[in-house]
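To fix ideas, we quote verbatim a fold written out as tokens:
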Amino acid sequence: MTKRIQFSNWETVVDELRQFGETGDVTLKDDRIRINFGSAHIEVSQDGLVSTGMPLHEFEQKGDVDLIVNHDDGSLTIESDDVTYTFRRPGG
């Protein structure tokens, strides 16, 4: 199941990322959520900053983005006018 979510609905962002990160270590602060999957991570802040990291590369995007969460295939896509980036959850 694929869901497109926007930062304007922060509660939905948090709920979807908690579900996405249930196989990892989820940390929630006031304005951000971070998911660690061993050597890979994703962090999303309420002000629109998305950062990811894994061996060999990192990604960061700030601004008007949509998050597209696909729980079935374990992917999180960050989409904006000028970039599309897909983070794949380790282990699927």
The first strand starts at residue 2 and ends at 6. Helices lie at 10-20. Residues 2-88 form one domain.
